[in-house]
User: What shape does this take?
Amino acid sequence: MMYNSKDIWTRFWHKESCLPILDKNHPGYNLLYGGTNIEPLASMGMSCFLEPCIDSFSEGFSILDYGCGAGILSNFLSMRLEKFRYVGLEPKTKHGVERLGIAKRMLNDERVEFDFISNQKIETLRKQHFDCIVLISVFTHLTIEEIYVILDNLKDFLNSGAKIVFSCFIRDEYKLVKPQRNINNNFYNFSFLTENQLLSYANANNLFLKKECDFLALGSNLHNIYSLSLKE
Assistant: This one.
């Protein structure tokens, strides 16, 4: 059964039982947000990415946030769990350096780690256990070739039982709109994929692709959220 984002939010994720790393009333709190900075809309979006891993969501939960921005997902977790492990990664670009600088300054907590994406870092993390790998609004901006490279780097995490959860914009035709070189050479304002492109990767790598839910953030494009896991 595929729930809609409102059902997902009200059924479980709206509950806050722990103290956050950074209080929402902190004067710099809005710096943590990415594209969607209106609540509870932003938190509803984060819950859609965690919902596929809800069976693992309990004390001791571990998550890798690939393309973490300023790490607001770690603060979302801290309001719901006391014990968790969060690793947030960003590319070492001007934009990534700026976002990680905010994250490290404002979300200083022993449960949270921030670093830049590198082959060495990914290799180190592969030796560790994660319940969930999330890519929030990452594939919505990249070429399909870049997406395949990222998935190749992350698919080994599935061997320990993790799921890879990501969003994309699904259309009938593959299309890239307006490059944004100030962020990254392979970054586009919008990247529209076809579901067949995702299925092709999943089948070639013996993975199970599942459509989880849709989420409409700020703007007019519907975020289609999928998960990848090992075939049973």
About this structure: The CA atoms of residues 63 and 225 lie 17 Å apart. The longest strand covers residues 207-216. The chain has a mean pLDDT of 94. The chain has seven helices and nine strands.
